[in-house]
Amino acid sequence: MNTGAPALSASSLAPALPAASLLKLIWLASPALPVGGFSYSEGLEAAVEAGLVSNEAQAGDWLVDQLQLGQARSDLAVLAQAVPAWRERNFARVQGLNDWLLQTRETHELRLQTEQMGRSLLEWLRNDAQAEQLPLAQCAALPPSYPVAFALAASTSAASTGEIVLACAFGWAENMMQSAIKTVPLGQSAGQRILARLGQAIPQAVDHALASTDEDRQAFTPMLAVLSSQHEIQYSRLFRS
């Protein structure tokens, strides 16, 4: 029976990612990874306090904008360039990417976030079965931002750079969705709808990150910087940033 669906051939399908590599990406993207990602709202809590985000639609809009204007142009772009650098053991390149990311953190708390999460992920990596083969000393000496540490952790898998960036982006989306649930506040169903919106936007953000050159990378989110600064002295708060 002809269903009208186009025929698929083996050559039209991407090769399957080995199970161990797929599990590694799922593990790294999990909110349960002990790096503290759940303890940050990245300015969202301050946006709620300022009355800029007060419902599901506004929370979804805020996070999609943050993904496209912030993550895709900065953190994910650095990650996309750090993966091949780690695989090639190009430590000078890794150092340059890490320096750029730390220098472009616009507030004290945003810099502390990426440093703390990078440091925690590096400690987690010391328990990796391939830890002896990893340049952990060079990574610790940076010290690593979170995208650079994530790139090292994922670089030992058979995953492509695109798959690695996709996993990291989804892990970020899950953490931010949970932040929205707690701060707005919202119900779990609303959170899942926000995550679905982010899931639709992530592939394009990843494509942008993968296509970015050193000249394309940018960190220019002035409203986020203002809100992060205000959050540092916010009287009552749930999150560290």
Protein described:
This protein is an all-alpha fold. It has one domain (40-232): Urease accessory protein UreF. Helix content is 62%, strand content 0%. It has helices at residues 19-29, 44-49, 56-71, 75-87, 91-103, 108-125, 136-140, 146-155, 161-183, 188-211, 222-232. Helix 4 crosses helix 8 (146-155) and helix 9 packs antiparallel against helix 10. It is globular and about 50 Å long.
Summarize the model shown.
This protein has 241 residues and is mostly helical.
User: What is the radius of gyration?
Assistant: 18 Å
Order of helices and strands: HHHHHHHHHHH
User: What's the name of the CATH homologous superfamily?
Assistant: Urease accessory protein UreF
The count of DSSP E runs of length 2 or more, i.e. the number of strands, is 0
SSE blueprint and pairings:
Blueprint: H1 19-29, H2 44-49, H3 56-71, H4 75-87, H5 91-103, H6 108-125, H7 136-140, H8 146-155, H9 161-183, H10 188-211, H11 222-232
Helix pairs in contact: 1-9, 3-9, 3-10, 4-5, 4-8, 4-9, 4-10, 6-8, 9-10
Keywords:
Urease accessory protein UreF, 241 residues, mainly alpha, 11 helices, globular, disordered N terminus, single chain
